[in-house]
Structures are given as C-alpha cells and as structure tokens.
Specification:
heterodimer; A: alpha/beta; 7 helices; B: mainly alpha; 14 helices
C-alpha cells in the first residue's frame, strides 16, 4: 500500500471558488455535502493509474493539497502557507466562472507558489506582477479549472468560455469547466476526465521519468545550471 | 436667492461624499469580490453621503457659513432622509437579500421581506420601552421617537467600540506585551505541522486503497443510504466499511490538530514581524504613543466611573473649560469668543475625522473577517446600517463637546431628547466594554505563551 510512489499536486484559488468540493469529487467520486471554510491546508489522496490500458500501467498516489485562504492575506499567513509549497510536482488553479476577480487572482496565486522555489536561487524576484517569461520557463505542469458552470446563463456562456480560454493560454495549461456538485462532468470517458487523466500522467512523467533516475525535482537542477538551460527537456 | 446658493453648495458636497463612499466601497471593501448588484453599492454610498452631510452641517454651524435658516432647513431635511434610510430602506433591503438567498422562499420573496421588516419594526419599537428617553409630550409618530431609538442603538455601538479600542490600542502599540519568538520556535512548529500532514496523508492513502479494493469487489455504497439501506447495513456490515469509519475518525482528529498548528504558526509569524517592526523608528514611535494612550485609557475609565458613581454629567464643554482655566488660573487674557470658535472647530473636526476613519477601518476589518462571496451583499448592507446609526449618535454625543451657543441648533433639530441619559448610557457601556476587554486580553495573553512552550 505505502509502497506505491507519490506525487504532490497543489490546488490553489480564492476563497469560496470550490476547491474543497473539487478535491472531494476527484478523490472520492462523490459530491461534498457540507462544504465549510478550509483553515490551513486539507489533503486528500487519489489513486491514479498511470498510462491506463497500456502495458506500462502503474498505480500512483496523487496527493491533492488544498490550500485555503486569499491572495490578500496578511504576510504572516502567506509565510505559513509557504511551508506547503515545498517540492510540488503539479498545480491545479481553480477559479469561479461567476467571479472575474477570482480568475485574475490566479496569476498572483501561481506566482506565490512558484516564487517559493525561485527565491532561494536568486532568480527573478518579482513584485507580484504577471510575467509571461516566468511561465514559459516553468517546469511544473498547470491545469486551470473553472467552477460553478451551472450558474452561468446560456447566453453568457460563450463570452465566459472565451475569457477562460485566454486565461488557460497565458498559463500554457489545459482548462476544464465544470460544476462540482454534479459528478457527471467527471464521469469516466468524458472529455474532462480524459484531460484530468492526461494532466496527472504528465505530472507523474515529469516527476519520475524525465530525470532518468535522479529523484530530485527540477529546481536544484536550475540552481546548478543557472536557469533556463533545461529548455531542451521542455516537451510542449 | 441665498437659499438657492446654499442649497447648491450642500448638494455639491453631498455628491462629493457620495463619490467618496462609492470609491471606498469599490477599492477597499469589495476589492476581492465582484459587484453584481449595484443597488447595494448605491445604498452604501447614499448612507455614507447623508451621514457625512450631518457632520458638515455641524462644522458649518461653528464656522457660521451659510444662512442660518437654510442651515436649519437642511438639518431637518437631512435628518428626515437619514431616518427614512435607516429605518425603512436598509432593513427592508437586508430582509430582501436574505430571503433571496434562500431558494425555498424565492417565489414570494417580497412578501417574506415585508414580514421580516415588520418583525424588525416591532423589536425596534419595543427597544424604546425600558429606557427613559422621551418626555411624555411627544406623540406616537414623531421624529423624536425614531431618533431616540436609533440613538440608543448607535450609542451602545459607539461605547462598545470605544471601550475595546481604548484598551486594545495600547496593547497593540506597546512592545512590552510582545512575546519572545525565535526562529527555532517557528521551525519546530512547522515541522510538527508537516508531520501531522504526513500522518493524515498516510491514513488517507489507506482509505483510498481500501475504497478501491471494495469498489473492485463491488461492495461500496456510492449513494447515501436510505432508511432500508441503514437497516440492512446493521445486519450485514461489511468489515471494510467499519475500518473506514475508524480511520476517518482518526483523520478528523488529525485534521483538527493540523488546523490548530497552522493558526499557531501564523500567529508566531505575526509576532515575529511585530518584533522586527518594533525595532524600527516607526515602531519605537508607536511604542511611545502606546504608553501615552494607556495613560489616556486609564484616565477615561476613571472618569467614566466617577461620572456614574457621583451621578455627574459635565455641564461645560472642554473648550470653554480649557479657556476658563487659562484665563482664570494662568492669567492669560485673550479674545474668548474668537478663540473658542476656532478651537472648538478644530476639536470637533478632529473628533469627526478620527471617528469616521476609525469606523471605516473597523468595518473593513470586520468585512474581511466574516464575509464570503455569497453573503457579502448582506454584510455590506448591515455595515451600512451600523455606520448610519453610529454617525447619527455621534451627532447626539458631539453636542457635549461644543460650546453652548452652537449646541442650540442640535437641540432644536433633534427635539427635546434626554441628552443626559445618552451620556450616562455611553459611560456605562464604555466602562463595561473596557473592563471586559481588559479581562479578555489578559486571558488571551496568559494562555498564549504556554501553548508553544511545550516541546
């Protein structure tokens, strides 16, 4: 049981977008009945079959770390949150489709999580502004999920979906839009389920199969090579 | 003609205040949320604008700006409008927002919000009974009835905030109360936090694997059990699910522990930042201010006790008394009338500005602490209501800080209220609030160092 390998994926986003419901849906295939405030960090585990259906199929644990809070929190809360950002293998960014501010805050969230590892190397300390170059250089796979799709009226759907498509493009990530209170969005075989499965596969690949036996994740490599020279391993 | 000019000046200033309230709403309160119902923003800004107009009229009174009769007219009009807003509009809209959030009652929301508003009016009216706030010559439906009740609520709020603020201010400013926090303390706590998270993860892994095996064997229940399902599960309990509930309980306990550890770590980081801040210039300045404020706080508590014990209400305002002292005891002669006007203007101005600023900051903190994306509208409306009541009662109490010749307009406009009662009530609530804040802070301070002394 504990002999399976593990990867760590962060789930980030503003308060009230539905991260806890999403994590519950992903890990237990059930809708969360009574969502409440997440204080600190709540973790759940999903058992994932890497390369399902092929001869190389292997089972892994995916730890989903749902970090609560807002981007505008006091710096003491941010420093405490930073302890959860160690050795992260993937990030899921969650935003609320009915709330534009939550989508805009995703840039700050991703910078907060990524900067945690960039600062010790002395590379590119930003002031919190969005910088396209940083995301191009980023080794950690990202996934953007928009929630509360059912609350968007039919007529506005096209406009909202265009906006989120631009957002996902900025992060160089896939995107999924769903409603966390309805399991059919992630039903086996649906396009959303395929995207999620592909994302987890990518995370596992980057963690275990691109280092050729070197088990340390990407950032110490960056320290040694002075940044940016790992682009040759950048697959997409 | 002068009336028209005066009115246009008043209206311009009201529009300015409205704009300021609008900006404050957008930039400060709602900076993390999306404004979906502009009515809420309008109501908030309107309440703010009319409250500020009252303060403006006081300043005009002292400075002698504008025609006296037009000032009186605007006073009356402003008062009527503000009472209309505070007693009719905002409570009704609060009820309406609450009812709209509940899906069941959505169809007849107007009806239910009217019912809610009537309940509010009933309790609001009943509020006036135990207090001796009216003289018997007032009729049932007069402005004095409404103002007196609004005044009671507002004065209670003011005294509560004042009492807590007077005690909390020196506590936060002075570095004497800062606990000693080192980096090793923080690292130790962080390590415990991560260890707890690891334990939670390993238990969840076991649960996930157990669920998967059960699912593959076709034993798992995916839907919540109905009545017969529960009876059946009593008779034929699967051993797998029993294990799961046990592990789930352990996980719940561990998660509670992780939350506690997280909050403690955040607390330690905050204290560390404060220690670093207190070593800077600004920090030292605030530390000094803290000593000054603690003396001020002790003096205020002392005065409040004296007022209550000796049943004394100050007859003269601080400005006149200060001038009397300087003239009589220090022998300095100067033009009393001229100086009393300017000094009272400055004093009243400072009181007004600090109370507005203090209230807005407190409201913002409150809002950040308790609102979520669903309830933000209701909370903002509640805050608008509190703000309106607060400002109306400030006008009531500020009367005591003004020299006699300026008090008359307030007395005229607000009617024959028992002003002494309000000051006594303020003193009582202030004393209660300050003493309970001292007790509360003492307990909190005592309990905290013991928490992270344990290895």
């Amino acid at each position: 049981m504990a002999s399976l390998d593990r990867v760590k994926v962060l789930v980030l986003g503003d308060s009230g977008v539905g991260k806890s419901s999403l994590v519950h849906l992903l890990c237990q295939n059930q809708v969360l009945g009574n969502p409440s405030w997440t204080v600190g960090c709540s973790v759940d585990v999903r058992v994932h079959d890497y390369k399902e259906g092929t001869p190389e199929e292997r089972t892994y644990y995916i730890e989903l770390w749902d970090v609560g809070g807002s981007v505008g929190s006091a710096s003491s809360v941010k420093s405490t949150r930073a302890v959860f950002y160690n050795s992260v293998n993937g990030i899921i960014l969650v935003h609320d489709l009915t709330n534009k501010k939550s989508s805009q805050n995703l840039y700050r969230w991703s910078l907060e999580a990524l900067n945690r590892d960039l600062v010790p190397t002395g590379v590119l300390v930003t002031n919190g502004e969005y910088d396209q170059e940083q995301f191009a250089d980023n080794q950690i796979p990202l996934l953007v999920i928009g929630t509360k799709l059912d609350q968007i009226h039919e007529t506005k759907r096209h406009e909202v979906l265009t906006r989120t498509a631009f957002l996902a493009e900025d992060f160089n990530a896939e995107e999924i839009n769903l409603d966390c209170t309805n399991p059919r969005y992630l039903a086996a075989g649906s396009s959303n389920a395929v995207k999620i499965s592909r994302f987890f596969d990518k995370v596992i690949e980057k963690r275990y199969f691109l280092r050729e036996g070197n088990q340390i994740p990407g950032f110490p490599d960056r320290k040694r090579f002075g940044g940016g020279t790992l682009k040759s391993l950048h697959y997409d | 003609m002068s009336f028209l000019i005066d009115s246009s000046i008043m209206i311009t200033s009201q529009i300015l205040f409205f704009g300021f309230g609008w900006l404050f709403f957008m930039r400060q309160l709602f900076k993390d949320y999306e404004v979906r119902q502009y009515v809420v923003q309008v109501i908030f800004s309107v309440t703010f604008a009319f409250s500020c107009t009252m303060f403006e009229l006081i300043i005009f009174e002292i400075l002698g700006v504008l025609n006296s009769s037009s000032r009186y007219f605007h006073w009356k009009m402003n008062l009527c409008i503000i009472l209309l807003i505070l007693v009719f509009m905002v409570p009704f809209y609060i009820g309406y927002s609450i009812v709209s959030n509940i899906r069941l009652l959505y169809k007849q929301r107007l009806l239910f919000s009217c019912l809610l508003w009537l309940t509010f009016m009933y309790f609001f009216w009943k509020l006036g009974d135990p207090f001796p706030i009216l003289s018997p010559k007032h009729g049932i439906l007069s402005i004095e009835q409404l103002i007196s009740r609004v005044g009671v609520i507002g004065v209670t709020l003011m005294a509560l905030l004042s009492g807590f603020g007077a005690v909390n201010c020196p506590y936060t400013y002075m570095s004497y109360f800062l606990r000693n926090v080192t980096d090793t303390d923080i690292l130790a706590l962080e390590r415990r936090l991560l260890q707890t998270m690891d334990m939670i993860i390993s238990k969840k892994k076991r649960m996930a694997i157990a669920r998967r095996t059960m699912f593959q064997k076709g034993e798992v229940h995916n839907k919540p059990l109905g009545f017969w399902g529960m009876i059946k599960s009593v008779a034929t309990s699967a051993p797998g699910s029993e294990n799961l509930t046990l592990i789930q309980q352990e996980v719940d306990a561990l998660e509670e522990l992780s939350r506690q550890l997280f909050l403690e770590t955040a607390d330690l980081y905050a204290t560390k930042e404060r220690i670093e801040y207190s070593k800077t210039f600004k920090g030292k300045y605030f530390n000094f201010l803290g000593y000054f404020f603690s003396i001020y706080c002790v003096w205020k508590i002392f005065m409040a006790t004296i007022n209550i014990v000796f049943d004394r209400v100050g007859k003269t305002d601080p400005v006149t008394r200060g001038i009397e002292i300087t003239v009589n005891y220090l022998g300095i002669q100067f033009d009393v009338k001229f100086w009393s006007q300017h000094i009272s203007f400055i004093l009243v101005g400072i009181i007004i500005v600090t109370s507005i600023r203090g209230l807005l900051i407190t409201l913002t903190k409150f809002f950040y602490a308790i609102s979520s994306s669903k309830s933000s509208n209701v909370i903002v409306l509640l805050l608008a209501q509190i703000m309106g009541m607060y400002f109306v009662s400030s006008v009531l109490l500020i009367r005591m800080s003004m020299p006699l010749e300026y008090r008359t307009i307030i007395t005229e406009v607000l009617g024959e209220l028992q002003f002494n009662f309000y000051h006594r009530w303020f003193d009582v609530i202030f004393l209660v609030s300050a003493l309970s804040s001292i007790l509360f802070l003492y307990l909190a301070h005592k309990q905290a160092p013991e928490k992270h002394m344990t290895p």
